[in-house]
Amino acid sequence: MFDRAVLHLDADTFFVSVERKRNSALKDKPIVIGGGNDRGVVSSCSYEARKYGVCSGMAIKMAQRLCPEAIYLRGDLDAYSQESQLITDIISEYAPVFAKNSIDDFEVDLSGLDRYFGAFKWSGELRQRIIRESGLPISAGVSVNRFVSKMASNAAKPCGELLIGQGQEKPFLSPLQIAKMHGVGEVYARKLVYMGIRKIGTLSQIPPKLLVREFGKYGTTLWEHSNGIDSSRVIPYHEEKSLSKECTFQTDTIDVRFLKAQLTDLCSILAFNLRTSGKLTSCVAVKIRYADFQTYHKQKQIAYTSSDQTLLDCTLDLFDRLYTRRQLVRLIGVRFSGLVRGNLQISLLEDTPQEIELLQALDRVRRRFGQHAIKWASTM
Fold first, then answer.
1. How far is Cα 68 from Cα 52, in angstroms, rounded to an integer?
2. How far apart are CA 117 and CA 296, in angstroms?
3. What gap in Å lies between CA 342 and CA 274, rounded to an integer?
4. pTM of structure
5. What is the phi-psi region of residue 273: left when phi exceeds 0, alpha when psi lies from -120 to 50, beta otherwise?
6. Mean pLDDT, rounded, of the chain
7. pLDDT value of position 222
8. Are the beta carbons of 291 and 328 closer than 8 angstroms?
9. Are 335 and 287 in contact (CB under 8 A)?
10. In this predicted model, what pLDDT tens digit does every residue of 70-84 receive, in sequence order?
11. In the chain, which end has fewer C-beta atoms inside a 10 angstrom radius, N or C?
């Protein structure tokens, strides 16, 4: 029996699986999903493509050199969002407490369930229902905490399930390579290997003070996770959350270029706030208040994203459709709603490596000097 139980669910190669659901001819073939041209980035790829060295975040040009025979698809984020919502609806119907970490990643807190039903049995039945009703492969991991459950679901791929019993956390983690450790990126992995640490078991034996000296506060997390310790809780998922920002002008204006510049600034700041809080939005709304205080709104559902360009394109399109009176404007505003936890990788379908690097550089400046420290030229 678990004192605490956490289920981690991960949709295997989610974008690829959705494409195969829509077109069965793609089954068992190397598939790469990314931008619409050779300047794009790989957003997702099948296991068949991974055998050639293709991976997410890789430039499409490099993927084409490694696996020229792969089928390259632009991707359909609207379809992926719909499939994600289907899985979310199934989980929310049965799970007592669950979190949606990203478009294809879910956690369920099953603490206390063992005494009534059995956490692993319940998890298996939920997983089978998702597979049956969505037609998509799902991997699952169950353990006493979030980190080990995530590692278990990774180990269970493709389309499997794995139970790590209480007290078995360290034996399960110890033989795994550092590169497979959740939360350890490429830079930290290289540094750990340089320190002679290639397996999680070795990392678990390093004194915490040494890890803190080398990695700061994250060193404590590295030591705890390598020892199968994770006290963090599953944060309940709530669909109705939003971020908004408004601008009231000192002088009412009809200058469309100025209004669009202000919208660009508001949208850019909100998108930055999304990324720093690890969230994505699925709904954009624009608000206009005229000089006579008449107020109008227009919104649009979109695929989950936190990309500046995607959100700005949507915001300006809504403004063009909303601003029809051609009267003096007193206030404009932007609101992002339908938020979920996630990261920018979900928006890679349209981004080039250069655009992603630029956005990351802008975020670094804002984090260090404040969100108003740097702006797009069009807002000046």
1. 10
2. 51
3. 9
4. 0.66
5. alpha
6. 87
7. 95
8. yes
9. yes
10. 999 988 877 888 899
11. C
What is the b/e burial string over 336-359, where b = at least 16 CB atoms within 10 angstroms of the residue's CB? bbbbbbbebbbbbbbbbbebbeeb
Sign of CA dihedral 338, 344, 349, 354: positive
> Which residues have a Cβ under 8 Å from the Cβ of 159 and sit 6 or more positions away?
12, 131, 137, 138, 139
Alpha-carbon Rg for the chain in angstroms: 23
User: Six-digit token pair at 339?
Assistant: 């938020």
Beta carbons of 32 and 53 less than 8 angstroms apart: no
User: Pick from 336, 294, 346, 331: which is nearest to 314 by CA?
Assistant: 336
d(CA 163, CA 2): 11
* 164/81 Cα distance (integer angstroms): 31
Q: Take residue 329 and report the two structure tokens written for it.
A: 């404007």
Determine which of 82-91, 132-141, 221-230 has the lowest per-residue pLDDT on average.
82-91
Q: Which whole-number Å values give the CA distances from 234 to 61, 68, 141, 287, in the listed order?
A: 39, 42, 14, 34
Q: Tell me the pairing of strands 71-73 and 31-34.
A: parallel
The Cα 252–Cα 174 span in angstroms is 65
